[in-house]
Amino acid sequence: MERLRQIADPPCDEAIADVFERGQGAAVNEALHGWNTNSQPVPGGLPRKLRDFLESARRLPSWADPELMAAGHRFALANAQQISFAAVLDVTPERMRYPAAAAAIFGIEGPHDNKQGFAKALRAVGDMLHKDPYGPDGAGFVTPARVRLAHSAVRYLLHTEGGWDTGKWGAPLSQLDMLAEGNLFTSYLIDHLYKLGVHPNTQEAESYFHECRVGGHLLGMSEDGMPMTLAAARKRAAAVDALHVRVTPQSAKYVKATVEYFSSLAGPKEMTVPPATALVRYMIGDADADAFDLARSTWDEVVPTAVRGFFTGTQAGGLPTPSATMTRLAIQIVRYAMNDGREIDLTMPLHLYGHR
Q1: Total-model pTM
Q2: Whether residue 338 has pLDDT greater than 60
Q3: How far is CA 171 from the centre of its chain?
Q4: Considering only CA atoms, which of 103, 105, 101 is closest in space to residue 117?
Q5: Average pLDDT in the 25-53 region?
Q6: Which of 155, 152, 141 is nearest to 217 (CA)?
Q7: Residue 89 · residue 195 · CB < 8 Å
Q8: Are 81 and 314 spatial neighbours (Cβ–Cβ below 8 Å)?
């Protein structure tokens, strides 16, 4: 794990360092604007190292199993509403338990300015809910590649503008950070779906894990960092948590600011923050909610029953089941709201928070 802590994404980092050292960050963002689907060629006019990296990143790993991927995607589409719900209200706050990853996020977004980051994350989630993410009209290759570019830009800026302490934190957004986040989106999320009325069988869980593992590879996770099975992922996640979980005061402020922001999209904060906080508490559990200093309220008694009833009813057919298309539309509406009514572009940041 210490070795994973010192490694980031060498091929992408090298290409992006070359871009910044040439002063071409803004030009690259402009060239990549509109590059959104797999059928589009890599845009022209890019520096050679970057063009070569993007061409190499647009392929599945040799171990990808088409049948498992298809089964995993069917599970994701069938449960798109619950998976998206868990990704926002469960996985998102839990990311802040890892201090090195949290420090990198604070460096680029600031402790409270999280709208852009969430809008970009929601775009990535929505893209993966496409009916055929690796087909010509999907973005299963393009979106991860652009996310990798943004991550490498963050690393470069943290070193050049942020005074990143490698001795304390290791590499910014390291393979260990990616592993921790990958665990949250796979084994952790799968094991928390029961709270939303979803009980995947063994084959469904393994297939979904395999599809996510392919996605992790495309996002730059190393082969030795990614467990091959769900059982191994659970074991690795427990080991990572035992060594690296620590909630800081800054992490707690960020989580509360995030809950307040999402609540404000639904109505006045004084009315919406208590039930939204209770939703997060239900998903992440009392121990982590208390660590983040999330306030308790009478909503804590109401929300679990209401959430279980809603999603159980949906699964049983008692309520209309939102399709993956409707879930993607809802995600799009939220991310537009978070970006002042404009579509979000997966651009590289050109400066850290406080340097803009």
Answers
A1: 0.90
A2: no
A3: 19
A4: 105
A5: 96
A6: 141
A7: no
A8: yes
